[in-house]
Amino acid sequence: MHHWCRSLLGLKLTLSDSGRRLTFNFNYSLIKLKFILIDSQQTQSIQHLASKMVYLDYNATTPLADEVIQAITHSLSVAWGNPSSCHDIGTKANHVIKEARQHVASMIGAKATDIIFTSGGTEGNNWILQTAVQHYQKAFEAKIKSIGDMDVKRNKPHFITSNIEHDSIKLVLEHFKDQEIADVTFLPVSKSSGAVHVEDVVAAVTPSTVMISIMLANNETGVIQPISDIGRRIKSINRQRGDNQRILLHTDAAQAIGKIGVNVEDLGVDYLTIVGHKFYGPRIGAVYVLNPGTSTPLYPLFFGGGQERNLRPGTENTPMIAGLGKAAELVHINLDLYSSKMQEVRDYLEEKLESCFGDSVCFNGRFKDSQRLPNTCNVSFIGKSAMPGHEILSQVPSIQASVGAACHAQDRPSHILLAIGISDFVARRALRISVGRETTKQDIDAAVQDLQKLFNKT
Amino acid sequence: MHHWCRSLLGLKLTLSDSGRRLTFNFNYSLIKLKFILIDSQQTQSIQHLASKMVYLDYNATTPLADEVIQAITHSLSVAWGNPSSCHDIGTKANHVIKEARQHVASMIGAKATDIIFTSGGTEGNNWILQTAVQHYQKAFEAKIKSIGDMDVKRNKPHFITSNIEHDSIKLVLEHFKDQEIADVTFLPVSKSSGAVHVEDVVAAVTPSTVMISIMLANNETGVIQPISDIGRRIKSINRQRGDNQRILLHTDAAQAIGKIGVNVEDLGVDYLTIVGHKFYGPRIGAVYVLNPGTSTPLYPLFFGGGQERNLRPGTENTPMIAGLGKAAELVHINLDLYSSKMQEVRDYLEEKLESCFGDSVCFNGRFKDSQRLPNTCNVSFIGKSAMPGHEILSQVPSIQASVGAACHAQDRPSHILLAIGISDFVARRALRISVGRETTKQDIDAAVQDLQKLFNKT
Predict the structure, then answer these.
(1) pLDDT tens for each residue of A189-226
(2) For residue B124, what are the CA distances in angstroms to B117, B121, B128, B262, B300?
(3) Do A66 and B21 touch (CB under 8 A)?
(4) Fewer CB near the last or first residue (10 Å), C or N of chain B?
(5) Given an 8 Å threshold on Cβ–Cβ distance, is B397 in contact with A78?
């Protein structure tokens, strides 16, 4: 136990180190502040890191904003009560959750009552798809009861999705198909835009279609999908279908939030998935459901203590919820700034790559018929000394990027690039480079320089 | 933006306040430490709180240990990478998770590969019960295929549980029963011990019994259930049943961990639920599964990115996992100390209540035929001026306790107390008082004094 103590200008400062815990107390008259160590490094090694390592994998995950860390840390200490408890410390936690829910709602133009916290995007996506199956069964049950048709087995819900979805959509729907729980149409995206065609979506609708689930922006190419157009078309189709046969619209907005404006009314969705760690928030998420359980069906995945209005039981993860709220608040306030900064740096990166490597690079996902996220660059190195993307990354460890979804089949070409019509040769040589709020042009210069060194060497 | 800066004995200290964020930097030569504000209060109000409010609801939730807060906060800052990413920052996160998994395993005498992180106890309990249903269906499918019996509908899995389980077991099994997914035996606990009789469990076994799920210790009475005796009996029954008809044993150890020794081998369980926030850890959990997916069946609830060996996909909540690991490490090292301290204070509370209130109090769940958690006291005030438990708490807000599970039907008698044979009159007048690691005899004195004031007044 080391202890350092000073009195200075009437302030009492103590710094104590017990084992691995280092706390700092600041006492002045009646005011007490307690700090806890969050980072320690030798400045030399910090400088060393800064000049060498460049993180360019913000689509895999983002660091937490300082404000988010503070919201979490504060809540860990002062809002640890059980939000269901009636006493003071419980009420405090409850208040933190209420505030966070409002921030998450405001970020996407929703009502607070339409937000339900989840453990993350995977739970959210699985939940929404499962809900559609259960809803169809109930709606269909009502229908067969009324018409006396007993051929239940043949009638299955039908889903429409794209062929570029995240595994937490793709694998669930493949499982539904394999297990004969549902029929699924996996729509190919257009090779001229990297996006689904709205007409293809409409054409795929059948009387059994219960849900359309298409991501808002792709994680590898950044291509933004035409959800609001789909929303408008589906709304008009739904006017002709009974309430029990209404087609539900879901979008996984994991990669879009914090990068482009996301407004549930503009999109016309019934469900939307929110993932904290993609926008400088913590590793939890939320789902948006328009009037959950009333105008939009929602069946709980879990049974338990009644939290989240019985829709998602389990004692609330207050600190993480506080962090998610803070991350949402930051996006709500600063989106334009974040977005334009990222775009400036991403565009600088692409110009720099073009000017340094000329015809030896090509960009995947840059289409004139569609828009991209402002932070994503998918580039293939196809020159004479070309090598697979994962080899580039292993030879240039200073660039912390990826070849696609985190560690997802590093040595195979991305199925998403193949889906947008990229050849196997080019897809194998791709890097996904995604910039963040703090990425600078100097970071880009350092990364491009290291790539130049590699290709000059080989 | 306020800024305070001092150089002192070669140290440079800066304290800066930008909006709501207060950070403190400590620079000395090459060493940089960064602190973040976690708590601020006027000492006067701290003293005020300390003399007035006594938290006695540790079974609802616990505060986080300082070491746990530090582990989380540290991880928020330095291990924020995606654990599936191949680069440095991802590897760092992966290492944090590996270490935490080992600590959780060691705490309960398990192997690290038997621990799977979840979002909490509710997910864990729901998952294990759902797994049993799926396992039964697969095992039964194999059986009907071999004997050509097609009467599938009549054959349902059978569960055995107690009538004092947490809602995340009780409501799932009630749902299974309602939806004709499973048959369920809800065994009444003995009125002379508050625990299930091992013989009743054995007698309830049928050829379709797929799982026995009984909690390790009750959250309201603290009564410890005879899981290891059940484990031994089931083991010998299982020797006579084929592998496909093996009875699986699960215990929800939410309330036991951190209070009594919990060892999976001694208990003889196949599954065990772990809940961080009951032992000074964060709001996540884990399940123990003996060789998951091989010797013990485990079917994922979610599909997605392949995390947790495909058993529980979703990007890992590294900071919370780090905190859970730290909380487990603390329990592993200090259990005897925690346990004896809590017991001393709880016993002091009960003596004090007896000496102050005599026949006007009675203790629920104190049986000579069973053991209790060392921290739990369930007491009813049955004297002349008796009032319902929730009224006592609303009149004495300084005592932060509960009448049962957090905010669970405050105005009705606890079904758990009724289940152990307590009369409606006494059950309505019950308080659940649960002490923690830092609860002192002075806290107890203050609480009892406030109760005395209330009853003298009325």
Answers:
(1) 999 999 999 999 999 999 999 999 999 999 999 999 99
(2) 9, 5, 6, 17, 11
(3) yes
(4) N
(5) no
